[in-house]
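pasting for ref
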Amino acid sequence: MAKKSEKTPKKTENCVDLKAKMDFAKYVATHLQGQVDFADKKAAWTFSVLAVGTGALINKLLKIDWAATDSLKVLPLLGIAFFFIILAFIQIAKVVYPRIGRGHKGGYAYFEDIVQENKREYVKEGTSLTDERMLKVLYEEAYDLASIASRKFKEVYKAIVFSTIALIITIIVLLLT
């Protein structure tokens, strides 16, 4: 049993050592990279479903007896469905290939930053980083990954919404034909 006279050390905000800060920054970056990968997987699945659905729609449209169909009702809806299908494919393309910039000199983690320097300069500067600068670089990388993940999820969301709208309109078109 501890004596009452022994004092427990006070917790302060600065008690976390540099290694722990770096480990946390690496954890955050790894977690965010997983979210970026998840957004890419959602985009791939959305693309697959949309491609199969578009193929099925085109196959069905080729078999329709257009002479017996009320074209004034069906064709505008069909045009709208294809418009949303195209929008969904565009959003998926934005997920897979996000516009993340051309890079700038002085960066250490983003590939476009790295290739702005020549190899010798990059290695020289990278090996001379201080602990505090390395920590800052890790957090900058985490922020960049968060920005990429945020953009990807926004585009995936739009792709899913556009795909759903196209699906609903397609079902209506098929019911009218």
